[in-house]
Amino acid sequence: MLRIFFLLLLTSCTLGSSKYGGKRVYQYDPQQIYHSSDLNKISQDVVTSYQRDPRQLTWEEAFPSKKAIKSTSTLSFETIIQPTRSGISGSDKVYLSPKGKQLLTEKLLSVWEEAYTTVVNDETNYLPMRKLFDDFSFHSQYGTGVKNYGGTFQEGLAKDDVFLAERGKRLSALALFQPHFSRDLSLLLVPGYQLFGGPRGNEYQKYYIAEAVEKFDLDALYVIMVEIDWQATRVDKITKQSIHQKAVIKFKITPILSYKKIEERLKDLDRNIPSNLPNLNWASYEASIDVPVDLDAITKESSLEEIDHLLLRPILKTYADMCVMVAQRLYRDFKRMKIE
What we know:
This protein is an alpha+beta fold and 340 residues long. It has eleven helices and twelve strands. The chain is globular, with a radius of gyration of 21 Å. The two termini are 37 Å apart.
């Protein structure tokens, strides 16, 4: 029953919305160097946006050009990296430890922020997520902390952060139930993106978002979900078709405007202000790319350098290009005050 609820929650995110971009699957090559102009063209095929009109007025009326979005930050950045929900490995698979998932998540966040600030230049201000959460007393009143499994500071992954689970081997309870920031088991730890994400307006933490936007002088806050999964060559049990080894990266981002910002827009339009406005989601941007990786070459004897070369490096390179594509779409839409 709980699974059905989450499926309905996810599918309801895009009902009644308009779809832009993402018309076809692009065959991405992680070995190729893509320039900014190349990524801008590819983004029309890779990045899909979903937009829904606000409840009180049409989209064009709510977003005149004089109210451009110029100051942003990231409120929620979560990952699901190589999910370990089954408990037992069905085939030889490379996994990350809970600490490894946390370290990779921090790396993915830094890549996103670097790509975004590079694309928008000085025309759109971006407050780094770490600075947004420096004021612990402000944020703690709206939620609770999560235990940090990272331990002492570590610059990158160590050998014990990456391991190969052989077929039939049981996975550790720690990997299943205590992934910290990685949100490995969504039925136990509901990611923020499932509550905030999508093109629809929402009531979740509306006063928290309103205060954060006002305190840090922001126009919008991003909620982001990154999903990364990889699989070796296998045969589907039902269709009997051979499935080639690959990694799949999914990037989802929703810019959220505070209900107080919506009130300001309505006042400028001499509209009657509803007494209980929701937060307004600007749109939902989603991208998915399959990355060819040589998982069959990874064994128990493989070094961290070999795993990095065969698996992690192609994933990070592809992810960095995806961040640039999404940032370009956001920047263009913010400048035009129109989603297309």
